[in-house]
Write a structure and sequence with these properties.
Spore Coat Polysaccharide Biosynthesis Protein SpsA, Chain A
């Protein structure tokens, strides 16, 4: 038996703002111990012994690559030019897999938490016979309470392959309807996990969503590929893919297909879809308070505090969610957790940058953290991965002072190339061509002090870049470096 895992890494996770944001969605955020949900997903699928296929956005390509590297895995990352929901993402993966044979594909979201890896693997194996016979197999979670946050699968008759048929898919029900479904029995939460032959998935798309498949076929006719270490990036043709309509695989195929089987999963599962769900990942004290990081709850009940960076104290509170980050704070009643996405819409409409970006921003070469800023100055902490380089660039409006605090920096300034050790510094005048490179085996950390008449992130002329980026801004004005 050979199963190729396909991990769907899209989604913005707006219900977990301010920790999850467009530039750093929840699947990449360390939420369980020091590991992200994506890394935990990679761990959970390691029993397949096949390099995974990840489907992700261009903006998050190196976050995926970093997760694969951290788990010491090779893999392929299909880079969607734009988000087009799960039907298109799964079509891209099936087309890519078909070019390498006709494997069984195990489609999994990247942002679910399933702590019992062995129970999960056993459940998947129970669906192999049905998938090999030509069914699309989905895996439903045995519900532990009536939830309006999940869709449901109503189980039908038993099949000879050990699975059950799917009688119907049920959209997220109202609370009373959810209660009635559990009393009725034979229903499962829809976890969005599927096992299917690549050829079977493509045939189902041909039958039910031919236009989506056609657009994806055109985009994958001559994809561009690029290897970075053990990771292969595959880029579909952008303009063709942008013509693809957006639809979930449930609407496009599952609710219309006549050969869908289901296997129940009885282990612990969470889609980590709200701050209440995140809170449940932590143990509660005698008063129902759950704390991660440097939080303290005094004379409080049923309060969740996420405070990774600084001391946060709740005094006399009840049923609150308190989420602290360096540049934004959320305080919400627990029964309003599902409305956090509306907060993101509110902030986005007002063009508040914290709606989409963190103070610390991931880049292909590492990261930077905007520590302080004022009129005509800005201070950043910069981390550069071993062997990585920033682009060769210059600025029209700002000068930069660099101070190395950890590691060794190789600096290109005009025609000069020189090394800086810890506690050494250099100055980059306005208009000077420059580059920063880490020649060492440890992360380079430095402080950058910018000064000038304009300090916007779009003041860059990129002359040479190792990551295929252009000296331009994104449509909303954000710098692409």
């Amino acid at each position: 038996m050979s199963i190729t895992p396909v991990i769907l890494c899209g989604g913005s996770g707006t219900r977990l703002w301010p920790l999850s944001r467009q530039g750093f969605p929840k699947q990449f955020v360390p939420l369980v111990g020091d590991k992200s949900l994506l890394r935990l997903t990679l761990e959970r699928l390691s029993w397949t012994a096949q390099p995974p296929i990840c489907v992700a956005s261009e903006d998050h390509r190196f976050l995926v690559a970093d997760s694969l590297e951290a788990e010491r895995m090779a893999g392929t990352v299909l880079l969607e030019p734009a988000a087009r929901n799960t039907a298109a993402a799964m079509a891209l993966a099936a087309l890519h897999a078909r070019s390498q044979g006709d494997p069984l594909l195990l489609f999994c979201p990247s942002d679910h938490h399933i702590p019992d890896t062995q129970a999960f693997a056993r459940t998947i194996q129970l669906g192999v016979a049905a998938a090999e016979s030509g069914a699309i197999v989905t895996f439903g979670v045995v519900p532990s309470f009536p939830s309006s946050a999940y869709g449901y699968i109503q189980q039908g008759d038993a099949r000879t392959d050990g699975s059950r048929s799917v009688a119907r898919f049920i959209e997220k029900p109202a609370p009373a309807a959810a209660q009635a479904l559990l009393l009725q029995g034979h229903v499962l939460w829809n976890a969005g996990i599927f096992l299917v032959r690549a050829s079977v998935m493509l045939a189902a798309l041909t039958r039910h969503a031919a236009d989506i498949l056609q657009a994806c076929e055109g985009a994958m006719a001559q994809p561009r590929t690029e290897s970075v270490g053990e990771v292969v990036f595959v880029r579909p043709e952008k303009e063709v893919f942008l013509a693809c309509r957006s639809q979930s695989i449930d609407y496009a195929v599952m609710e219309r297909h006549d050969n869908v089987a289901v296997v129940p999963f009885q282990g612990q599962w969470s889609d980590v879809g709200s701050w209440n769900a995140v809170a449940e990942l932590s143990d509660a004290d005698d008063d129902g308070n759950r704390i991660t990081g440097q939080g303290h709850a005094l004379q409080s009940r049923n309060t969740f505090i996420h405070a990774p960076g600084r001391t946060v104290v709740a005094l006399g509170t009840q049923d609150l969610l308190i989420i602290d980050t360096p540049d934004a704070l959320l305080v919400a009643q627990r029964d309003h957790a599902e409305q956090v996405k509306d907060v993101v819409s509110h902030l986005s409409q007002r063009k508040i940058p914290q709606a989409a970006e963190h103070r610390r921003v991931a880049r292909p070469w590492g990261w930077y953290d905007s520590v302080d800023m004022g009129e005509r100055f800005q201070v950043k902490r910069i981390g550069v991965k071993p062997g990585a380089s920033l682009s060769l660039q210059k600025h029209h409006h700002r000068a930069e002072h660099w101070i190395v605090v950890k590691g060794t920096a190789e600096v290109t300034r005009g025609q000069e190339v020189y090394l800086l050790a810890e506690n050494q510094s250099t100055y980059i005048p306005i208009g000077e061509v420059h580059r920063l490179h880490n020649p060492g085996k440890m992360v380079l950390e430095m402080i950058e002090v910018q000064s000038g008449s304009y300090l916007g992130e779009d003041d860059i002329v990129r002359l040479e870049d190792l990551y295929g980026r252009q000296p331009a801004t994104t449509p909303d004005g954000r710098k692409t470096s």
